[in-house]
Write a structure and sequence with these properties.
- With 428 residues, the protein is an alpha/beta fold.
- The protein has 11 helices and 12 strands.
- It has 3 domains: 63 residues, no CATH class; 211 residues, Spore Coat Polysaccharide Biosynthesis Protein SpsA, Chain A; 50 residues, no CATH class.
């Protein structure tokens, strides 16, 4: 451990710098200042201090675990009308209760037609349970039935993949829960996509062709789609790619799943995502959602839901309230990590749910995940965007410590001798 008198100023300055970077503002997309030696020296001192703190406070992880469990139990008891110990809540009465009264009038008695036994207005008794407390927001209509109709829109982003786009449209037309409006965001395609979508819109007005003046990437397309669908007032928005084919009940299972979860558990999932398969039926490596630590908490055969902290934009359903609270995707990301950043951002309210029964087939050439050991001259431009975008996200959310961890992971994943040869992104 370093000398405490010398370490405290360094730690204080480094933490102040991290707080500035984490302030709520538009994330910086310029990675040129991410790796100054001064910041890395401060991180080394911070790591040593935090390591010593964890050694002295070995019970911290178990404390946070038990705290989360108690919070869930407290919320469950509140739903059942119980206190923190599991005992029935006793009604509280106002101070205006007449002296000598032993019981409070029931709500039914208070609302009944006045009789000789009905308390007069000056002796009316109000009985109420203790207010419920919950750290996370619940569904707005607690206990609402699942059959309440909600408006649904879909957003598909496309660029020069007309053959696959036609298969996506055909799959949407056979959905058991067809969105009321499908916004196809055309990133200035140079093939026959534009004319085909124009004719489709004339034949079926549910499909709206939104052509952009230039290609602003998948991130820009999903931003525009989210903005258009949100401004038209839809309650749920389903996002997906132009090469992902949903099974006939894929969207319906997401919509019923997110409503069923709210009705059963009162928590409001920030999104619901599908199981994404490759063309041969295997799990699609690049679209595997990231789970939270207690991911199987609510799983049962009747409730096949797993808690996830992020997912891709291949078949994900986002409720309107999440967009209203957390905004749209970052269009400046252009490509890669825009979906991970966005779902992690909205999951700050509550994690999303993974619905394995909702299946989508992702028609990509190879079934490979995003791994920096796979960088080559053909795909390096995508990895440039990916590295820049994830570094900007980590700097915003985790400060320099998160950027350092990310950089170390990239170096460990990269093939020997190749990391130094990857040029930094310029002009992005």
């Amino acid at each position: 451990m370093p000398n405490s008198s010398a370490a405290k100023p360094l730690l204080r300055n480094a933490l102040r710098d991290m707080e500035k970077q984490s302030a709520p503002r538009a994330p910086s997309l310029d990675p040129s200042q991410f790796f100054s030696p001064e910041h890395l020296r401060n991180l080394t001192v911070m790591a040593k201090i935090i390591e010593g703190m964890l050694e002295r406070q070995g019970k911290w992880p178990s404390y946070f675990h038990s705290h989360r469990i108690k919070d869930i139990e407290r919320h469950k008891n509140a739903r059942l009308g119980l206190d923190e110990n599991g005992d029935p809540l006793e009604p509280e009465v106002d101070a205006e209760m007449p002296a000598g009264s032993d019981t409070a009038a029931s709500p039914a008695t208070q609302s009944a037609t006045p009789t000789s036994d009905t308390p007069s207005p000056d002796t009316t008794v109000t009985a109420r349970a203790r207010p419920r407390r919950c750290r996370r927001r619940r569904c707005a209509t607690e206990g609402s039935a699942m059959n309440i109709r909600s408006s649904l829109a879909a957003v598909i982003v496309t660029y020069n993949r007309l053959d696959k786009l036609k298969r996506v449209i055909a799959a949407l037309q056979t959905q058991t829960c067809l969105p009321e409006r499908v916004f196809v965001i055309d990133n200035a395609s140079t093939d026959e996509t534009g004319s085909w979508l124009t004719q489709l819109q004339q034949d079926d007005p549910r499909f709206q062709h939104v052509r952009l003046p230039e290609n602003i990437g998948g991130a820009g397309g999903f931003y525009e789609g989210a903005r258009v669908a949100y401004e038209e007032g839809y309650d749920y928005i389903w996002f997906s790619d132009d090469d992902a084919y949903p099974e006939p009940n894929a969207i319906e299972l997401l919509l019923t799943g997110i409503k069923d979860f709210e009705a059963r558990f009162t928590w409001r999932p920030s999104f619901a995502c599908s199981a994404v398969k490759w063309t041969n039926g295997d799990l699609c490596e690049m679209n595997t959602p990231s789970t939270v630590w207690d991911w199987p908490r609510f799983y049962s055969p009747e409730t096949p839901y797993f808690l996830v902290g992020s997912c891709s934009f291949v078949s994900v359903l986002v409720p309107r309230w999440a967009i209203q609270k957390h905004g749209f995707p970052i269009k400046e990301y252009f490509i890669w990590y825009d979906d991970a950043e966005y779902t992690q951002r909205i999951a700050k309210s509550y994690p999303g749910i993974y619905c394995p029964n909702s299946v989508v087939v992702h028609d990509v050439p190879e079934n490979k995940g995003v791994n920096y050991s796979l960088v080559n001259q053909a795909n390096i431009w995508k990895f440039r965007y990916g590295a820049r975008n994830e570094a900007s996200f980590r700097r915003r959310e985790q400060g320099w410590a998160g950027v350092a961890v990310f950089a170390r992971g990239v170096r460990l994943a990269d093939a020997p001798g190749q990391c130094g040869k990857i040029p930094a992104p310029r002009g992005l």
